[in-house]
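Run log, item B.
One chain of 148 residues. Sequence copied directly from the ordering sheet:
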Amino acid sequence: MPARVAWSPAQLVLFEANKLPRTRRSHYAYEKAIHIAIADLLRLDAKPGLLWTHIASGEYRTDATAALLKRLGVQPGWPDLMFVDVAGAVAFMEFKRRGGRLSPEQDKFRAACVERGIRHAVCYSFAEAETQLREWHFLQGRTRVAAG
């Protein structure tokens, strides 16, 4: 029988972007909560050989750090997670709150992936993201998230 994993609300809200304007904090925190829960799920249940990483380009940073990252080649529009499966195929996942929309840069990146036959998903909840990971066969199936 698969192990059961349950994330408490306290675990899901591990990050709050205090530097963001008050109107954006709750949206940002919700997306981060989904993201953190999915990263935890991947640590527990990713198939052997799956490579994955968070593309850290959306956090608050000073102007100097932002300028340095731009010079280093950070591009706008890249999604939250990148995957490389054992066959070498690439996939991307973006997290949004319900009702949230992709920025023009994110939509352009998504369209470019679709044109090239690269898997790309925009997920609005933990359940959607988990379902997508299972459809992509990125999870072993040893864990099952407890309801509620």
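Observations after the first pass:
- The beta strands are 3-5, 51-54, 81-84, 90-95, 119-123, 143-145.
- Residues 22-45 form the longest helix (24 residues).
Flagged for discussion on Thursday.
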